[in-house]
Structures are given as C-alpha cells and as structure tokens.
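**Backbone shape codes:**
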Amino acid sequence: MCLCIQTIVNFNPLVSFTAENDAPIEVINIIEESLQDITYNTVIETDEIESVADVSQDISNESEEVPAEDHSVEEEDFDTSYHEYDGENSESIPDFENGQAEHTESESLEPIPEVEQGQSEHIESESLEPIPEVEQGQSEHIESESLEPIPEVEQGQSEHIESESLEPIPEVEHGQSEHLESESLTTHDAVEDSGYTHELYGHIRLPQSIRPTFYDIWVFPHMYGPDPELFSYDCETIIHINCIENTSVVILHSVDNHVIDWNITDKPQGSKQGRLYYNYDKEMIEFYVGFTMVAGHKYILTIRTNSSLSNSLRGLYYSPYNDGNVTKYILTTMMEPTDARRVFPCFDEPDFKAVFIFEIKRKPEVTSVANLPKRLTIGPDEDGYYTDIFDQPQTVPMSTYLVAFAIGELGFLESSVNNITFRTISRKSAINQTRYALDIGMKFMEFFEDYFQIPYSLPKEDMIAVPTMSFSGMEHWGLITYRESAMLYEEGVSSLDDKEWITIITAHEIAHQWFGNLVSPYWWDDLWLNEGFATYMMYLAVDRVFPEWNMINKLIVDFRGVQNVMNTDDHILSHPVYVSVNDPVEITQIFDLISYAKGGSVIRMMNFFLGEDTFRKGLTRFLKTYTFKTATHLDLWKSLSEQAVIDNHKNSDVMAVMNNWILEENFPVVMVTKKDDVTLELTQSAFLRNAEQRSMRSNITWKIPFVYTTNLDGNFDQTYEDIHWLEGKTMTVTDQNLKDSTWIIGNVQQYGFYRVNYDVALWEAILDQLMTNHTVIHPINRAQIINDAWNLARAGMLDFKIALRTFDYLDSETDFVPWSAAIREIKNLKSSLLMSSVYGAFENFMRTRIKKAYLDSAGSTNHYKRIQYTLIANEACKYGLEDCIKDATETFEAWMADSNLRINPDLKESIYCTGVKYGGYRAWHVVLQRYKISQSTSEKRFLMNALTCTDKPWIFNKLADIVMETDTFLKTDGAIIIINMFKSSIGRLLKLPFLDKHWSTVLETYREDINLLTNIVEAITRTVSSELELKMVLEFLVEKEKSATRTKLIEGIYKMQAETNNNQLDAVEKWLRVNYDLDVSPS
C-alpha cells in the first residue's frame, strides 16, 4: 500500500516529526478521546428468517487428523514451519452453463480449468501440480490433492440467497451482549447461557482451532438510487474450513455486517445452526455451532448478511464523481489492514490465507472486476440483473487484506506482457488518461519477473483508478487500486512531478505482488517486510527502467527517502521498524514513515553490505521458500544468510547485523576524529534531538558498516569490501592513505542509516571544498553534508555557524539532490523566522542564493534538470525573486483572459500559486470556478493547491467554509486543502479560529479514516515554533478535548520544539546581522 498523500511531508501516527520543521505530534492522543464514541453497531432487524436449503456436500469424517500448528518463533533455529498454507483442503467449483441459475451452493461447485486454451501458466511452485486442460464441452473436474470435487446441485436447487428474501433481525443496542439462537432468533441479555466461557475474547487474535481454505463470496449491491446514504449490499459468504483442534465454536472477525442467517454443515444430508454472539470491542463474531467439530474434519460455514455502504474509504465504500451534471459512483474496496471484516465475516489476519472466488450481481449498465479474471457472465434474470463469475484460478491463496472488487460504469484499456493480460480501468471519461500507467505497469511487471526470477502468479493484472481513496495506492492481488491523482496522466497537462509520482507509485504496488502478496507477513508487526521492500524496490525499479531520471539518487531526499525519515526517527517517542501490535488501532498506527521509509533505508543498507548479487539471489530464495505462505523477518534473515554462505560472503550472519536496526528505534551518529596523519577514531552514539534524550539511549549500539573517502582518492563508488565494521562504542582505523589528506567524508553515498559528525578541522576542510569545487563530492554526499550539519546543530552537537556555511556555495549548485536537501532545511528556518523581525533579511539571503539556480535551469529539456527547475521556481517566487514573480504573474493574467492558454505543466504550481497570492479575490475566484468545471485530475490538483496560496484572512476563512460546509470538494481533496492551508503564514495565524469553528466537522468527516485525520491534525500543529503558539494550541486541546492528561506528553514535546526553534532563531539572527543588512526589506 502506498502511504502518501502527495503534498504531505510526514505522517507517523504514533509520533510524527515533520521533515519541514521537525515539529512533533502525538496524533493519536490528540484525537483519541474524540473518537471514543465510534461504535460498530451490527443492526439486526427481523423476527423470522427463511432457512437455507439443505446442502449436499459430503465431507468425510475419516480424514487424517491435522496437527495444530506451532506459531512460536525461535531465533536460533529459524523455525518457520508454522507458516505453511495447507492447500490440501481447498475445495472445487463447477462451471456455469449459459442461462443456468445464477449461483449454486458452494458445496456443489465443481472445479474449473486453471488456464484457458493457449494461455501460458504463471504459477510455478513445487507444491502446485499441473492441472489438466479441459476440452470444450467436457465436464470440468480438476483432480488434485488440494481440490476435492463437490457434487453438483440440481437445477432449481437453492441458490445464493436473493436480497428480497433477506428479512431484518431485531436491533441490538451497542454494548449489549448479543445472543441469537438460529431457530427462534431470541435475543438474550447475556452470553453465558451457552456455557461457553469466552476466554478467547481476552485476546485480539483468532484461535488456531480452525483454519479457512476457501471462500465463495456472493455480493449484490444496491447502489442505483439517488441517495447514497441508502446504499447497501447483500452478501453470502461460504467458507470451507479445516478443523485443527476439537471445538464447538467458530470465531471470525466482523464489523457492521448484519447477519440474516447462517449455518454450518458437516454431513451430506443437512446443515446445523446454533447460537450467534458479537464482541464489538474485539470486532469478532462467534458462532456456537451446537456440536463438537472434530480435528481433521472439514466443514462449510455459510453466512448471509446485509450491510450499509458509506463513503468512509474503508471496506466496501462508494467513491463519487461527476459525469457532467450527474453524480455517479464507483463501489470499491480498501481492506488493508483490518477492513475485510467490514465487508464480510472472515478470518481477517494475514496468516489465514485461503483461495477466494466471487460472484457479483449487478445491473447491465455497470461492470464489475475482482482479483481474478471474469470467467462468465450469466443473466439477465427476471429482474434484469446479471451475475459475473470470478472463479479461476483456484490455486492462489491470499490474505483477506488483499481481496478486492469494484463495480461501476468503467472504461478499460488492455494489453499483455509475458502472457499476462494487463488492463487499466477508470471512470469512462478518464480512460485515455490511463495509457501511461498501462505502459509503465507492464514495464515494471517485466522488471520484477526478471529481478526475482519468479513469474507473476495470476493470469491478469488490473490497475483501477478511483476518485476517492485514503491512500495513494493499494496492492490488491490482481486488482491494484489507485487514487486518480496517482494513476491518471495527461501529456501537456500533467507535470513532470506528476509523471514521477505515478511512476514510483506504480512500481511500489507492482513490487508488492511479490513482497506482500506472494509472501505475506505472518502478523502486522512485520509490516515493514511489505512496505519497506516495496519502498526500496520502487526506487530501484524506476532507476533501472528510467536510468536518466537518477531516481536512486532521489531516494535520499524524496518523501520516503533516507533524510526525511531520519527527521522522524530522532526522538525518544519514535518506534522500531519491527514493533509489536495487538489491535486494529495499533496496526493502523504503524502505517507510517518508519515502516515505509526507514524500512526501505535499512534494506538499501543491507543491499550495500551484502552486495547486489547476494542480496538479489537471497530475496529470490526467500520468495520461493515461502511462496503462498506467510513469513517473518527471521525467515528473511535465514534466506539471506544461506545465500551469503553459498556465495562465500564474509558477512553471512545477517541477523547479527540487522537486529538492532529493526528492533531498536532511532539510529546512530558516528563522530570522526583525525587523531594523527594516518589514524581515525570512530565513535558511535544514538542520535536524538537533545542531550537528555541521548543520555536515555546511551547504552544502545549498532553494527555500523562505515565507509569513507578522502580528497586524495575521491572514491564514492565503494563496495562491501571497503567496509569498516563499527560494532562497539569506539574503534580506530589506521590507513596510510590518510597521510596528506585534507578532508574525509564518511558514509559514502549515505548507504548507511546514520549521521556523520567531524572534528572542526575536518568540517572546515569539507566546507572549503564545497566553495572551491563542489562537484568533486558526490551529489548524495553534498546533500548529506547539508542535512547532517543542520540536524547536528539543532541537536546542540555542532556550531550553527558551520550549518549556515553549508548554504554558502548554493549559488553554484546545479543538482536537484543537494538543492532538495537544502530547501528542506530552509523550510525549517522559514518556519522559525516567519513571525520574526529578521524574516526580511532571511528572504534577502534566499534571493541571493536562489537567483542563479533559477536563471541557469530555465528552459532545460533534460528530465532531471526539469525536475530541479520546478523545485527552484516554486521556491524563487515564494521568496520574492522579482524575475520569478514577474514571469508567473504575467503568465497567470494571460491564462485568466484565455482559459485555453497552454502553460508549461512543470511551472503550473508556481504560476497558479503566485497568481492567487498577488491577484487578490478576482484571481482566487477564477481558480475556484475553473476547478469546479475541470475534468482533468491533474489540472484540478494544481487549481486546488493554488486556492490555499491566498494571503488574505477573509479568503482563507471563505475557503475553509467551502471545504467544511459544502460538497464542492471530494473528501480526500478536502483533506489535502486543509493540510495545505496550514503551511502558510496566514494559516498559522488563523489555525485557532479554524479549529474553534470547524473541529467537530473535521472529526465527523474524517473520523473513520485515521490516515487522513492524522495528517490533518499534524498539519495544524506542525508549525508550532514559539512558546506563544505552544500555549494557544495546548489551551485549545485542553478545552476541546477535555483531557489535560492527554496533552501532557504533547506539551513536553512542544516545549522541546519551541526551545529548539528559539535557539535556532538566536543563532540565525546573529548570523544575519553580520552577513546581511537587516534594513533591506523584501522586494
């Protein structure tokens, strides 16, 4: 899954420090109390239920007993046997003849051939035997250990239950213990009547007494009326389960699914029904079956539900868009991490992998898609509905969070790569904007198949763009979902930034088809195995497919790059990459920069110390070993270590190196001191942002792969052979090549996840080299020098004068990566100085630094240089560079006069924003009106962002009212606007009035979406930089949240932040007084 909202700098829901100004947030504490009243009410509404027809599946009671699986993790022997998916127990499904009744009971379903005639198979595994091809007209039956045939249901036998037969069940109040007896459906006051102790409800994890092997999901949405608040859907879930230990209870996850009827069968002559219980706190539903399920036997559980649809962006939800003057909807899914349970009752943990098939009932004007290819459409029935059947192949088990389907008036583009059908899907009017995604999607599919040497597992890959989505992308297996802004591209309208964004997100999600889908994490504490690898691999893939983009360099300074996450991980309230999580709230909190970016950064470091060849072969070993299974980080260490031994690598104990990098929060700084002409002393310590916090982490050490170069050799292309391993607190390095050297730069190309500090003489030599000829130093290390210096200075470990001098050479810098690092630190300064008397001098300083870069990079046609020019142009106008403002305002005025004027898309962000800032209400109003009528996703994004550039308070408040009180903006767009509003100086001044007026609406709108709400809260509070602002924010929190204790931690964090900014302000002011005339006002 792609975490990002493109305009957001950082989002760590546990504790976030932004890359712009390091402002921290304990986001969950801020919003937790406001969310306490969220309930998951399973409304049950009827007195009678029609029984489901008797089923005829013969499940043998003579099956061999299946032993319980051992889920303990032993580091010393890498025991991973408990992860295996038991494919023996998957059941088979029948074919459907044209005109046949639209759905038969799961027990009757016979198997279907896995591969259509002439199609190449893409599933290769030692555990999967080939399936014979079925001739045309032949009765389809797949003989396999894992697929046992089930008798066919005769014509006229009860099908999946139609919605009209679904009668309501009596409502149960939230908090009341529900006790439903299937025969009489009587509601009781207590669950203890059954005699079951419910001891398992003390835990959030499901018991291991039963395991699913197969799901048959039938869905019938009611989405065709004018009022989306009345949208709902009927669902029948048929689950084939293996009994591992004797039990009389089946416990599943379920949220807001209103159970109409259920039964469980173990004999061919009939089904059994028992009692039903809910546990709202644990999001579980318990079926007390009324008999003992026997270990080694197989059972089929059928559950009929009716559920409401919403626009919550979770589970199955509706995503609105405008087609002319008509509002239409796409139904889509977002299951990760724990929201499949909101769509249908299921075993909603990643280790409970099973085969899924789908039947979706729909009207003829809409289309449905799912994880699997559509094999057949039957209908119309007597009401004019069709049913789409998605039921092959039946050999790819997946975790519930990867299940996906979508329904709407959809357009398609189709091609193929390596015999895989590859399609892009969107609302019909936007389908031509998916051509670029189709092209690069196929390129990345080819790249990853070659890189991992493992074929893609399904016969098709769909990528669908939906109007609203909490995240930018989600890796559903065979049906990747993207927010429209992360997939739609228009040549001549979308910018190069848009193109890069779409490219890296596509690479990220396709990488997941191996890391995350083929092999999934055993539990969410190893989320980083999914997201860290997808993050690192997306940069690697883009760099290999588009080498001229230099994406592997941008990894250092990008949103999910090394430097950004370092600014998130340098405080005592951070969390490790591998972190214990126990419930859905905790799981959601770790979808943050630590899991994604730090995970990706330490994987990049691992690639460096193992070498590309061993690393790559070790990953392939890991993926092949755990294909269709789940795994832990210990399993990864084992596979990489085994490969390192085979390759005679001197570092074969991967776990010994990596454990502290993922099990400990924070990271080290290495102090480099030149003791004499040929001796370096290296000393490591935990890097945190103040001395008190560093002392609390003084006992921690990491095994650090330290490499360096000097002015004598200038070798920035070092390998694992050059590593000096710093394992303790201190070590010395003796090197005759150090003699006569002037400067030394450690952590070459910033492969290691650590900062480097130097003695004063070495810092002076490095700064002199930057001024003399900066190109001698690698661009990544130039960026590293700037980033390390400023963060060391803010932490009190380096004189601010040295940090300030890293900016002196910038008027000669022409590379994107160092400029990006510099602008990050400049934004930190700007945030601190914005309300101060020296801000004018600071703007004057910035104009002198940025003018040459602005003029020199204009007009470039090179991709890398164009990206740099976009970055520089945006900053030049913000700091009042006259050339930039003149260019932008003249172009904006011409565009206002002629809406068809074509503007360089790389400069639209700067031109529109500058035009609104200097054009007053007239300019702002034109932008708003053109936003409303634009049909281009990219253009709407430019216009939407420009609306927040106003510097007039009354326009700011007008925009806030439109966002919070009208439906002008989609839900996700509204969140982005709120976030951008508070980046500005006027937003900082008006944050308290905004909160006072709109906070309750913000909570009501985004309370179901912790990702968006977290980022809104962070944006509102991230710019705290003074004691006064701190006091105002805290007073609001105490008043509105009524929880002084919850703000205690926040108060401590912000006091630290305010002190840091005050220290920074004093140092910068002194420097500006010496070097720049404070009386020079901004031009």
